[in-house]
Sequence to fold (261 residues):
Amino acid sequence: MPENKSPQATAPYASWKSFMTFLDLLAEMGLPQQVDRTVMSKMSGATQSNIRVALSFLKLTDSDGAPTDALRRLVGKHGDNEAWRVALRDVVLGAYEPVISDLSLENGTADQLWKCFRENGNVRGSTLSRAVRFYLAALGAAGVEHSRYFKAPTRTRSAKAKQESDDRSGGAEAPRADKPAQKPGEKKPDQSNAKQRQADGMKRDWRSHSFHLPNYKNPVEVRAPTAITQEEWELVNLFMTGTIKLATRQPSPPDSAEDEG
Fold:
């Protein structure tokens, strides 16, 4: 494959069902001037972020979140199955062309597909599996035939459960329980290459993930790398859990200044 390519945008890794639910909402409500979190108020912060990544990658919104002509065409064809598939086909094939490169859609292999996403799609680990699943679902919805060898990498049990939960709820906001403590004998995250991972992390694109908490009008935002792995999220969760336990000793009053606004 060609070398010395410029960095590509992150391939979408949202739940395809949640993405389609959002497109159905736009068809029902009409296109907003800008796609922002208030348009997705019933979705979790993570789902909002994932869908915005998908819209941007597919060139359905511009850098400011404003709908493009491609999104107007796609939403305008809602309800006309064949015309909608044709519009989606143009969107999907055009957006993924830099990622897929010269891989054959007719007889390429799963390993070749994964390599394309790792090298050109800025995804890895559990995110790689989700990104490939989104791509294959998009091809299917667009009526694009592809190699029968194509498939997504095997997901971990926790990643699969999370995906199924998102599919059932359409990405709606749900309370998050603390992760259980590490069980005896359970494999710990590999710390041998911590310095290298830290250096790699400084080169990554970063994104803000928002979460709603009781008694606060505005969401809490956590800034993290776009391609953060499941293990890294677990480390973030450990730090956050410790901070919350310390805070409960002397609970802070509700943020009345924000509530009054």
